[in-house]
Design a protein that fits this description.
Blueprint lengths: L3 E2 L6 E8 L3 H12 L5 E4 L8 H4 L31 H14 L6 E2 L4 E7 L4 E6 L4 E9 L21 E4 L13 E5 L5 H8 L5 E5 L6 E2 L8 H9 L1 H16 L2 H5 L1 H18 L3 H6 L12 E2 L12 E4 L3 E5 L2 E4 L4 E3 L2 E4 L16 E2 L6 H4 L18 E3 L12 H22 L3 E4 L1 H15 L27 H7 L8 E4 L4 E2 L1 H7 L3
Helix pairs in contact: 1-11, 5-6
This protein binds NADP nicotinamide-adenine-dinucleotide phosphate.
Length: 511
């Protein structure tokens, strides 16, 4: 006999709970609505949509994937201003898309998820939030992105510093850098974008480099008015342009799988440094000693020439300590500092990939423990032991060569197929089989061997033992092809004993 489970009246019950309203969460919401499902809620820790594009507003912030490709396939934009749009144009695109598809009423802002627990007697997820609200959902979608918790290194004496300190993802636009001595730590994707922008404004800029990055030319250009008009009038031409960008990006997988080709490209990249940096010793310091592509390849025409400026110094000695108004390196040199900017990236602990809250699944499954040897999932989406939980940009689905929006759309399509099949099966939950997940991950790790990512460097792509838990090691069209439909035999389909009273369900479902 089926028994009824009671819930506190303040609890919201929905079909789908989504965490995050960046590109992933919005795509999920739009496609749910298109499928006729308005029974969902988006839990968003920030005060607006946009995720990484809401947060990363530092000077010079822009996407290093072409905008016609870094946008939804179903929501083309004819009038991107440049090949690589600046952050505010991308954020505006996200705001416009949110409005067009009527997603805002489904979002609870300033609502951070603090825990998620699966109940196998009902087949439901209970999602707790920092506001005290609880959401109970049949499906739980993590669209919280891998890069959102700033990594701020512990530096001796930083607490005594009298100047300004901020992280690149928390840029203080009210702080005027004009005429200041500025220390910038880190030389990753964010720093190489803001360093050239702030250099002309500050009195002195010290760029602290631990490991140099490979930076290649940016094929930047502004779209002419006539092109934008043609794209608006003839969407087919815009789509052709997008297709051309897709395939030219896709061709970049060859150097990834053939380090010999990568080494050829590396020679060109070395020439680029020598052409752009006048001082030979400086050019040498800026040249990495690992194979190009091992860490994310960065694109900029402005970064290297910044070091030709008289007011910019590249500092490669390690940091010893920070004093009240200065920073001291291990070689004993003291440099005056009014402001310290951390371009030091984000916390990417594989055990908490995309979730810095406790998450428990079927009996005995706790994600922190299950992922202590490294985050793993099936196509980055389903994790064994966590039924009806899905991830966007989950383990081994990030990219170094093409648009992540393409992957997100494939993942959303797959998740909708899971939801549809669950209903068709008359089941309450579906759990990916452990054996299926394991053999998939063995193939992923086997394919990682011999790629540039395994050529020897440290990056956020890898955990401490060298296992790459972030990158999809094939072409994106392979991912698309393999996630077009679910294989029902990959999952165990379960009907639960306990059901929630439908009267209570109606009474508590709100947005
Ligand atoms: P990141 O690529 O992880 O770079 C962090 C930098 O800080 C590295 O140079 C790192 O040096 C350095 N660092 C970290 N801890 C340090 C410490 N304790 N002392 C000294 N240096 C330290 O972070 P990010 O630049 O914020 O970029 C993160 C990711 O965001 C990128 O990989 C990219 O995927 C994405 N991103 C994308 C775009 C875009 O246009 N699409 C733009 C910006 C960022 P080591 O290399 O030695 O660790």
């Amino acid at each position: 006999m089926t028994s009824k489970v009671s819930l506190p009246t303040q609890t919201t019950i929905v079909d789908v709970a989504i965490v995050g309203s960046g590109f992933g969460g919005l795509c999920m919401a739009i496609k749910l609505r298109e499928a006729g499902n308005d029974n969902f809620v988006i839990l968003e820790k920030g005060n607006d949509v946009g995720g990484t594009w809401r947060d990363n507003s530092y000077p010079g912030a822009a996407c290093d994937v072409q905008s016609h490709m870094y946008s939804f396939s179903f929501e083309g934009k004819a009038d991107w201003s440049k090949r690589y749009a600046p952050w505010h144009e991308i954020q505006q695109y996200i705001l416009d898309t949110t409005a067009k598809y009527g997603i805002r009423p489904f979002i609870r802002f300033n609502t951070e998820v603090t825990g998620a627990h699966f109940d196998e007697s009902t087949g439901l997820w209970t999602v707790n939030t920092g506001t005290g609200q609880t959401v109970v959902a049949r499906h739980f979608v993590l669209a919280s992105g891998p890069l959102h918790v700033p990594a701020i290194p512990k530096i001796k004496g930083i607490e005594n510093f009298k100047g300004k300190v901020f992280h690149s993802a928390q840029w203080d636009h009210n702080y005027d850098l004009t005429g200041k001595n500025v220390v910038s730590i880190g030389t990753g994707g964010s720093a190489i974008q803001y360093v050239p922008e702030i250099a002309p404004q500050v009195k002195q800029l010290y760029v602290f480099q631990r490991t140099p990055a490979w930076v290649i030319p940016r094929d930047e250009r502004t779209y002419w008015g006539i092109e934008k008009a043609v794209f608006a009038k003839l969407p087919m031409l815009r789509k052709l342009h997008r297709a051309r960008l897709y395939w030219s990006n896709e061709s970049r997988v060859w150097p990834i799988f053939n380090p010999a080709i990568a080494e050829g490209l590396q020679k060109l990249a070395e020439m680029f440094i020598k052409i752009q940096v006048k001082d030979k010793a400086l050019a040498k310091k800026l040249t990495p000693d690992y194979t190009i592509g091992c860490k994310r390849v960065l694109i900029s025409n402005k970064y290297y020439p910044t070091f030709n400026r008289k007011n910019v110094e590249l500092v490669t000695d390690g940091i010893l300590e920070v004093k009240e108004n200065s920073i001291v390196t291990k070689d004993g040199v003291t440099r005056p500092a009014d402001c310290i900017i951390f371009g030091t990236g984000f916390i990417v602990d594989p055990r908490i990939y995309m979730k810095d809250f406790p998450c428990t699944g079927l009996t005995g499954h706790n994600l922190v423990d299950d992922w202590k040897e490294g985050a793993e999932a099936y196509y980055g989406i389903s994790v064994t032991g966590y039924p009806n939980m899905y991830q966007l940009v989950g383990p081994n689905t990030a990219l170094g060569h093409n648009s992540i929006i393409f992957m997100i759309e494939a993942q959303v399509n797959y998740i909708l197929d899971c939801m549809k099949t669950l209903k068709a099966q008359g089941a309450d939950y579906a759990n990916i089989k452990a054996s299926v997940q394991q053999s998939f991950n063995e193939k992923v790790q086997a394919n990682m061997k011999g790629t540039v990512w395994s050529s020897g460097c440290a990056s956020w792509y890898q955990q401490d033992n060298g296992k790459n838990f972030t990158i999809w090691p094939w072409s994106t069209w392979k991912y698309w092809l393999e996630t077009r439909k679910i294989n029902q035999d990959d999952y165990v389909w379960v009907k639960c004993e306990n059901q929630i009273s439908s009267r209570k369900k109606q009474a508590t479902t709100t947005h």
